[in-house]
Amino acid sequence: MEKTISKYTLFEYLSGRSNPLERQLVEEWIVQKENAETFHRWLLEYETKSPQFIPDQDAALENLLLRLNSAMEYEGDWRKEEGEEERAPSWLWQRSNRFWMVAASVTLLVSCGWWFREPIQYKSYQTAYGQTTDVYLEDGSRVALNSNSKLKVPRLGFWGDVREVALEGEAEFSVSHTIDHKRFVVKTSKKFQVEVLGTTFSVFARPRGTKVALKSGSVRIDYSQNNQRREVMMEPGDLAFLDHEGAVQLERKQDIKTFAPWTEQRYVFNATPVKEIIAMIEENFGQKVNLSDSSIAQRSITGNFKTKNAEELLKTISEVLDLRVEQNGASILLTNN
């Protein structure tokens, strides 16, 4: 019979509080190869939450500075009077040189720890151009990640009172409710975040703009404008976007069918100008589209199109608007017929 244990049982074993039966179960479970990955992940989480030694960084830095000052004063005492050759004894020079090497090594280690802190704390999911994927979080929430997008989640799970993730690009979230009512927050920048109360919504966070579309449930948008914190509550069917002044604008009672259609490989346009469509093609597929005439950019299209790649989408657009697609290597040009 296959033996399984819980994370709590392993933590009790590692802390020395387990009973003889639990110790036997854990030790039998650990030696099984199929449990190795889970064991090392839980072990890292336990050691992170229960460190055996917590350094006092402020005290260590102060001590280091005191030692540096003492070394410099000690070396100065050995200098000869003015007019004589100024040279410290060789043993003192070696000691001082060795001390500076140690100090430099400590500084380098501290800097590296700070620099690589984020990759250690967070796990990233990233999609390539033309690729979409589903990410399932430990709380049961699902994130449909659009192409050319990046999602960062805590590597060791959600701690504290907030389930927080970071998004660059576009994604649709189906957030699970937790029995302890833990909040779910999606951050797109230091000045903009979406707080969720069990819901389905999509977030668009790209260089050309930020949008949030709510399908069900409720969300609150927290943002900063002119160094003042502001918030906006959304209802199902609302579309929120960040305007050029940094304020959030709401469009009520929108067609929810147009929210994140890319999850079904569909593109829904409602009097959408060509300039927005070619920007979307570059964001999702990484292909730059040029226009032979600036007037083409203002022409619009309405419709629901199911396409798998940029080529199919461009072909559909060109047929509807009577345009011609000219491709020369990686370069794509739309011209009038």
UniProtKB/TrEMBL annotation:
Q: What is this protein called?
A: Anti-sigma factor
FecR protein domain: residues covered = 125-220
Entries under PANTHER family matching the protein: PERIPLASMIC SIGNAL SENSOR AND SIGMA FACTOR ACTIVATOR FECR-RELATED, PROTEIN FECR
Where the record annotates domain Protein FecR C-terminal, the positions are 266-333
> Taxonomic lineage per UniProt?
Bacteria, Pseudomonadati, Bacteroidota, Cytophagia, Cytophagales
State the organism named in the record. Dyadobacter endophyticus
Q: Which domain of life is it from?
A: Bacteria
Concerning Gene3D superfamilies, the annotation shows: 2.60.120.1440, 3.55.50.30
